[in-house]
């Protein structure tokens, strides 16, 4: 099925006109495609079919319950980074036994919650965290399954804010120190060492850094075997990039083929944590042009979505495609697409050639990952609704926030 496509001069999400969704639910609004989510998840699952594996979707990319539920129904696992994300997975029908817990700052409460739920594994990022998990598990009379996230010191070649596998990053344990740390972990009575974990960054557009990292991690697994520590699973993280503009990232199949050539003859179960590659191109943000404003220097299209709705352009200078929902035949001019927030950095796109007028709808593409999940209420703006299309059907999967809800937890002083 065509996912987002033009038909009769207007943009459709599966079988539904995006303009009809905007008319029914207002703008700005996030629109997701169930078919796209399923297609992207299955691409990973099929690509790794030759060996035991589990696709653990990275919940941070898009944590809407309906998105998680669509993936849970396919048998997906999940990669979480907080108690909140675990609660979402469970509420959406996901299985704790298929859930891994990443992140550098797990609190004792979060660890206890994850142990009670019986998650699949903790991806541990420091010795202090190993000690804390061991302690909490001991108090609960439990044994915690752990893998250690190692930092292979590989340059992912991506934006510095989303590169995580270099020595200077806060993530993981230096791979050269890992054998000693594994010995420490193996000696802790309430830990069960089951895996090795590695995630080197996000929006990678070449397989080379993945292959380099895998080679180093497999070397570590061999060293551990010699030390008598046997590893059951290898979590290779997420990070596969998507097409935003002119990137040509490897397909999940090409990525899997490159990894599998190194994995032959090993009996490891492979865990993967893709987020963006599943959700990114399964969603868009639809917004309306409120005003056209020209200065001597530039021409602005002021739209009703802003950096609080979609932070990526402001935070990473990310280029995201912006397309008219109902294209006009008139002359295209260059616009900066900006929001109403009081910051010069509040833009969604710069120097875009578009034929538009006040009142037109624009679709910001590839917004299914790190879109809504990074949104905020800055400038007291209620967050946008989320809508899931499935064939002909349209479901509001998160209602637009109300203004009252924004300060419902606030309190003024009594005297
Ligand atoms: N696993 C771990 C441990 C991670 O830290 C991440 C992403 C993933 C998996 C999923 O990576 P993905 O497959 O989505 O690349 N907000 C940024 C991206 C931050 C990624 C953080 N970690 C953006 O909008 O580009």
From TrEMBL:
What is the name of the protein in this document? Diaminopimelate decarboxylase
Q: Name one GO biological process term.
A: lysine biosynthetic process via diaminopimelate
In the UniProt record, the gene name given for this protein reads lysA
Q: Which PROSITE patterns did the record assign?
A: ODR_DC_2_1, ODR_DC_2_2
Which residues does the record list as N6-(pyridoxal phosphate)lysine (modified residue)?
Answer: 60
Give the reaction(s) catalysed.
Answer: meso-2,6-diaminopimelate + H(+) = L-lysine + CO2
- Which Pfam families would you find in this protein's record? Orn_Arg_deC_N (PF02784), Orn_DAP_Arg_deC (PF00278)
Active-site feature positions: 342 (proton donor)
Q: Where does substrate bind?
A: 276, 312, 316, 343, 370
Output the PANTHER family linked to this UniProt entry. DIAMINOPIMELATE DECARBOXYLASE, GROUP IV DECARBOXYLASE
Q: What does this protein do?
A: Specifically catalyzes the decarboxylation of meso-diaminopimelate (meso-DAP) to L-lysine.
Xref: InterPro entries: Ala_racemase/Decarboxylase_C (IPR009006), DAP_deCOOHase_LysA (IPR002986), De-COase2_C (IPR022643), De-COase2_CS (IPR022657), De-COase2_N (IPR022644), De-COase2_pyr-phos_BS (IPR022653), Orn/DAP/Arg_de-COase (IPR000183), PLP-binding_barrel (IPR029066)
Annotated family = Belongs to the Orn/Lys/Arg decarboxylase class-II family. LysA subfamily.
Subunit details: Homodimer.
Tell me which residues make up the Orn/DAP/Arg decarboxylase 2 N-terminal domain.
35-279
Picking any one GO molecular function of the record gives:
pyridoxal phosphate binding
Q: Does the keyword Cytoplasm apply?
A: no
Give binding positions for pyridoxal 5'-phosphate.
239, 273-276, 370
The cofactor named in the record is: pyridoxal 5'-phosphate
Pathway listed: Amino-acid biosynthesis; L-lysine biosynthesis via DAP pathway; L-lysine from DL-2,6-diaminopimelate: step 1/1
Organism of provenance: Methylophaga frappieri (strain ATCC BAA-2434 / DSM 25690 / JAM7)
Quote the Gene3D superfamilies the UniProt record gives. Alanine racemase, Lyase, Ornithine Decarboxylase, Chain A, domain 1
Keyword set for this entry?
Amino-acid biosynthesis, Decarboxylase, Lyase, Lysine biosynthesis, Pyridoxal phosphate
Q: What taxonomic ancestry is recorded?
A: Bacteria, Pseudomonadati, Pseudomonadota, Gammaproteobacteria, Thiotrichales
Q: Does the keyword Methyltransferase apply?
A: no
- Any idea of its EC number? 4.1.1.20
> Which HAMAP family does UniProt cross-reference here?
LysA (MF_02120)
Q: Where is the Orn/DAP/Arg decarboxylase 2 C-terminal domain?
A: 30-368
């Amino acid at each position: 099925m065509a996912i987002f496509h033009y038909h009769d001069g207007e943009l459709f999400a599966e079988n539904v006109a995006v303009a009809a969704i905007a008319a029914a639910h207002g703008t700005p609004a996030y629109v997701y495609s169930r078919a796209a989510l399923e297609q992207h998840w299955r691409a990973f699952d099929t690509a790794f079919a030759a060996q035991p594996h589990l696709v653990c979707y990275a919940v941070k990319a898009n944590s809407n319950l309906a998105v998680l539920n669509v993936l849970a129904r396919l048998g997906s696992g999940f990669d979480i980074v907080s108690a909140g994300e675990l609660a979402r997975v469970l509420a959406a029908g996901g299985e704790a036994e298929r859930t891994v817990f990443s992140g550098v700052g797990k609190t004792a409460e979060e660890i206890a919650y994850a142990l009670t739920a019986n998650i699949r594994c903790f991806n541990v990022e420091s010795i202090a965290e190993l000690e804390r998990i061991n302690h909490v598990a001991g108090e609960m009379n439990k044994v915690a399954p752990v893998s250690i996230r190692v930092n292979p010191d590989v340059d992912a070649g991506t934006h510095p804010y989303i590169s995580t596998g270099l020595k200077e990053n806060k993530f993981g344990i230096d791979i050269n120190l890992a054998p000693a740390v594994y010995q420490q972990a193996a000696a802790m009575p309430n830990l069960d060492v089951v895996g090795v974990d590695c995630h080197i960054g996000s929006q990678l557009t070449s397989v080379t850094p993945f292959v380099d990292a895998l080679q180093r991690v497999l070397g570590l697994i061999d060293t551990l075997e010699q030390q008598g520590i046997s590893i059951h699973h290898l979590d290779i993280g997420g990070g596969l990039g998507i097409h935003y503009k002119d990137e040509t990232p490897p397909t999940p199949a090409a990525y899997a083929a490159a990894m599998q050539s190194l994995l032959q003859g090993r009996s490891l179960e492979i865990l993967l944590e893709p987020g963006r590659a599943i959700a990114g191109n399964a969603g868009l943000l639809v917004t309306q042009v409120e005003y056209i404003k020209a200065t001597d220097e530039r021409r602005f299209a002021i739209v009703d979505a802003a950096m609080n709705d979609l932070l990526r352009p402001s935070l990473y200078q990310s280029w995201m495609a912006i397309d008219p929902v109902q294209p006009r035949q008139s002359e295209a001019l260059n616009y900066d697409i900006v929001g109403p927030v009081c910051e010069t950095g509040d833009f969604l796109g710069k120097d875009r050639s578009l034929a538009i007028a006040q009142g037109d709808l624009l679709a910001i593409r590839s917004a299914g990952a790190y879109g809504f999940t990074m949104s905020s209420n800055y400038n007291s703006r209620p967050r946008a609704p989320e809508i899931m299309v499935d064939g002909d059907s349209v479901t509001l999967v998160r209602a637009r926030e109300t203004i009252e809800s924004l300060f419902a937890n606030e309190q003024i002083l009594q005297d």
